[in-house]
Amino acid sequence: MSTHATVNIGICGLGTVGQGVWKHIESNRAALESRLGVKLNLARASVRDLDKKRAVRLPAAKLTTDPLAIANDPAIHIVCELIGGTTLAREVTLAALKAGKTVVSANKALLCKHGPELFRAARKHGGHFFFEASVAGGIPIIKALREGLVANRFKLIYGILNGTCNYILTRMDREGASYPAILAEAKALGYAEADESLDVDGWDTAHKASILAFLAHGTWVPVEKMLVEGITQVTQADLSFARENGYAIKLLAVITRDAESGQVFVRVQPTLIPSTKVLANVNEVYNGISVTGDVVGETVYIGRGAGQDPTASAVISDIADAVILLNRGNSHLPELAETRAALSPLQSITGRYYLRLEVKDEPGVLAKIAGLTAKLDVSIASVLQRPSETPGAASLILTTHDSNEKAIRATVRRLGKLSSVLGEPVLLRIATFS
Ligand SMILES: NC(=O)c1ccc[n+]([C@@H]2O[C@H](COP(=O)([O-])OP(=O)(O)OC[C@H]3O[C@@H](n4cnc5c(N)ncnc54)[C@H](OP(=O)(O)O)[C@@H]3O)[C@@H](O)[C@H]2O)c1
Q1: Alpha carbon of 18 to ligand 1 centroid (Å)
Q2: What is the dihedral of CA 265, 268, 273, 276, to 10 degrees?
Q3: 163 CB under 6 A from ligand 1?
Q4: Could you say which architecture CATH assigns to the domain 346-430?
Q5: I need a surface site. Which of 68, 168, 244, 320 has the fewest CB within 10 A?
Q6: DSSP annotation string for 346-395
Q7: Which entry of 208, 277, 368, 406 is annotated as an active-site residue?
Q8: 158-304: what fold?
Q9: pLDDT by residue (tens digit) across 229-283?
């Protein structure tokens, strides 16, 4: 077995994350090299535009516009794919894996779209594919699930996985401002993308939940098989109800596994979570994840979910693992078992719900609504009537006892068609996690 006194690292993509990785390896070089017992050589980097101004300085000879040249360079041991997207990133990753190298990636989209193919290529050619930075930025949640909690089976994982949504909900709650007003500010501060839809409609969270579900249960749950709802319909009426009743509203990814059937279900929904729960108090751009294992009980992780420095921290932790494995001859890691667990059907998912309706302020409306919910087997726990901003209308807030996801969805559809209900009803989940 050959050990390497110097490990050569290639950084494909020297943007926000790539520059963070470069900067922190340079600034913490002495400590890192002493811990790992090797010299770390930042050998090459690729960019699209050689003339772009960058915060990190490197000799021109180290820069290329061809990331495949780095992936295929026999002198490079570890390739960091920090380009983003799924086309060039896949090509670069596969080329490096086929050459037996270890690839470190922060790319959740790549993993969700091509994960099985990349793991197969790593296995076949004796390298590894690491992706700690793809979920929850600086929080070492991948390592926790893969290594620290390996003794456990996971009946419940839930988390705040999108900093943009958490920032918007936190500010709306604190300041009483509307969703559009806070979104505009989040864009101005760079916390939200120009096209915010991937974040606020829940898809970014869904991709991350898919990765966590795979790590926990060995099964890829495509986002189309999840329930995915975003935060755009949340208003001050919902936030003030939550506050007054001891809850916070968070966009949660929830991954459950039924102990008897083994079926897995993944959903992303704005959820009223009791303020006694740690995650109810995870605010601003922070992420938080609760993992309940059958051996360990509940464990909770909090940290910055994105941004240059937290993401670089996760990438460098993967580089450190890659260095250790390289000097052990790239020995095999325990397989990520693909169990192909079945997915739970909607009718087996139950929970409590919050429903807000704008209704015509006229006699008999409540009776009609109660009649419909009873017919569809949804049992009402409480009803609150509030004045509406719309003249001649009232706002009704219903909470339910334990109900079935399929039944509540049918109820929302039918309520939306009643002539006395104005606009679309708003449905949120009430967390009943113990
Ligand atoms: N930013 C975060 O907070 C964060 C957090 C977690 C995960 N991630 C993930 O990390 C990855 C990188 O994100 P980022 O924010 O660092 O992206 P970024 O700032 O846009 O950087 C991308 C880099 O790739 C280069 N690149 C893009 N297309 C290329 C092409 N066709 N040919 C050659 N080079 C190309 C760019 O070159 P130029 O610089 O010349 O344009 C840039 O250096 C993504 O997968 C992202 O999802 C990001």
Answers
A1: 7
A2: 70
A3: no
A4: 2-Layer Sandwich (3.30)
A5: 244
A6: GGG-EEEEEEEEEEESSTTHHHHHHHHHHHTT--EEEEEEEE-SSTTEEE
A7: 208
A8: Dihydrodipicolinate Reductase; domain 2 (3.30.360)
A9: 999 999 999 999 999 999 999 999 999 998 888 899 999 999 999 999 999 999 9
